[in-house]
Amino acid sequence: MANSKRNLKWGAKKRLEFLETQLYWSGRINRQDLMEHLGISKAQASTDLADYKMVAPENMAYDLTEKTYQITESFCPQYINTSVCGFLEKITSSSGAEYLPLPTREIETGVFRIVLHAQQTLSFAKVSYQSMSTATPRERVIAPHTFVNDGLRWHVRAYDFLTDSFRDFLLARILEAQSADIEDCCQLGVWEKMHDQPWNTFVELKISAHPGLSGHQKKIIEQDYGMVQGETKLPVRRACLLYLLRRLNLLTEGLDPAEQQIILGNREEALKWLEEVTSEGSDAVSAITR
C-alpha cells in the first residue's frame, strides 16, 4: 500500500485526493463524478477508482443498486485532512461557501518577488519602507525568513540591519526593493532564523467564556471553541502573540459580555510575554515596524 502511494505521479495523486474528498464528504463516488469534475475520460476514471481501491481497499464498497462506490465505516483518510474548516476553505470558490469581502492591501508584484527571492535563498533585500512614524520612507537592509498573515494583512518577519533586531514589515508598505550584496550586511550570521528568539519561542494562551455570561451562554461559547473543562489552550509564537490577542479582541476589557464572549485566563502572564518581546527589540505596542 505504501509503495502504491509513493509511486503515484503528481497528477494521479491530485485526482485521488479529489476522489477521496468527494467520497468522504458526499459519502459516495462514481466514474461520472470524476469525469464531470476533472474532465477526464471514462477509462481514466475507471483507472483512478481502481488505483484508489488498491491504496485503500477498506475505504469504499461498490453498491450494485446505486451503481456507485459508498464510503464504509472503516474509512481511514489517505490523502486528505478531514477538517471541516479546511473543507469549507476549499469550496469557497464555488457556490457552496463564501468569505465576507475585506479591503485588501496592495502589494507590488516586483517588490514581493525580490523579498520572496531573499526569503527562499536565505539572502538579503534592500528595501524602502514607509512606516507610520516617519513622513518619508527609510532605506533598510533586511533578511526575511517567514511570511505571516494575521487574517487581515501580510507581513514578513525579517532581521532588520538598521535596528539590529528581528521585526515585522508589512508587505504593502515596502515601496521599493532590490537584492542586497553580502557586503551591505555586517555581523554575519545574526540574521538567521534560529536566532529569532520571539519567533522560536511558543507560549500558551488560556481562553475561557466571559464570566459575565449566563450559564447557558457559557455552555454555548464553550461548545463553539471546543473548550475542555471551561478552557481552550492556544499555542502561539511570542512574535505573533499581539496579532492573535488583537484578532480575538482579548486586549480590551470592559466590553459587554455578549459582545466580547471570551476572556484571557492568563492575561497577566500574556502581558508579561509582550513586555519581554518589547525588551528583545520587537515593537509590541504596534506589533509592526513603525
Reconstruct the topology from this structure.
Blueprint: H1 2-6, H2 10-26, E1 28-29, H3 31-38, H4 42-55, E2 60-63, E3 68-71, H5 84-90, H6 109-121, E4 124-129, E5 138-149, E6 154-160, E7 165-170, E8 174-180, H7 197-200, E9 202-209, H8 215-224, E10 232-237, H9 241-247, H10 257-260, E11 262-264, H11 267-279
Antiparallel strand pairs: 1-3, 2-3, 4-5, 4-8, 5-6, 6-7, 9-10, 9-11
Structure description:
- The chain is of the alpha+beta class and 290 residues long.
- It folds into three domains: 92 residues, Winged helix-like DNA-binding domain superfamily/Winged helix DNA-binding domain (Arc Repressor Mutant, subunit A, Orthogonal Bundle); 85 residues, SH3 type barrels (Roll), CATH 2.30.30; 81 residues, no CATH class.
- Helix content is 35%, strand content 22%.
- The protein contains eleven helices and eleven strands.
- Strands 7-6-5-4-8 form a five-stranded antiparallel sheet, covered by helices on one side. A three-stranded antiparallel sheet has the order 1-3-2. A three-stranded antiparallel sheet has the order 10-9-11.
- A hairpin with a 4-residue loop joins strand 2 and strand 3.
- Helix 2 crosses helix 4 and helix 3 crosses helix 4.
User: Main β-sheet: number of strands, strand sense, barrel status?
Assistant: 5 strands, antiparallel
**CATH H-level name of the largest domain... which superfamily?**
Winged helix-like DNA-binding domain superfamily/Winged helix DNA-binding domain
CATH architecture of the largest domain: Orthogonal Bundle
Computed over alpha carbons, the radius of gyration is 25 Å
Provide the number of structural domains: 3
Broad shape: globular
Report the mean per-residue pLDDT as an integer. 88
**CATH fold group of the largest domain:** Arc Repressor Mutant, subunit A
Distance between the terminal alpha carbons, to the nearest Å? 54 Å
What is the β-strand count? 11
Oligomer: single chain
How are helices and strands ordered from N to C? HHEHHEEHHEEEEEHEHEHHEH
